[in-house]
Amino acid sequence: MASSDQVQAPDAQGLAAAAKAAGKRGLPPIHLWNPPFCGDMDMEIRRDGSWHYLKSPIGRAALVRLFSTILRREDDDHYYLVTPVEKVRIRVADAPFLAVAAEVEGAGQGQAIRFRTNVDDEFTLDAEHPLRVAIDPATGEPAPYVLVRGRLEALINRPVFYQLVDLAVEQGEDLGLWSAGRFWPLGRLDGGASA
Predict the structure, then answer these.
(1) Per-residue pLDDT tens for 28-70?
(2) What is the pLDDT of residues 160-176, one digit of tens each?
(3) Residue 114 vs residue 7, higher pLDDT
(4) Does residue 124 contact residue 68 with C-beta atoms inside 8 Å?
């Protein structure tokens, strides 16, 4: 029997129920919650954006969406599922989300690029949702990310990245995109990383 000062790690069903109760209207206010750390949960978000629990994929999109609403990346760069009373650490292979679609509204410097993630978050590429491109030092391959909310990013999947490259224009020594009145570099014309 657990003593009163021991904290038991919750299971996925308990977390899902708490997330559902807390997020009845939009995203739950997880930035306001500071529950005790309850341990690690055998849950992983893989680089392809799929969620796995106890080594098995979570097939219910609604459940993945629910978990995504209580996900937080803290200052230690670990990812936690957070409810008002529990916090568990999970593994994230790369970024927790995947940008799977992009739409362009308008044209030229007045255009806005809207992204949709694999968990149905939608937002515009702007100052609150900046774009960054990391270059793999071993392969030289670009890995583009866009901030979704808090410290949570989405990796832009390859088809969407190619779509963005098709939309890209030259600006000085960079190739990039205009969105929300700002130029977002994708890379340098000479193939290097933008500053």
Answers:
(1) 999 999 999 999 999 999 999 999 999 999 999 999 999 999 9
(2) 999 999 999 999 999 99
(3) 114
(4) no
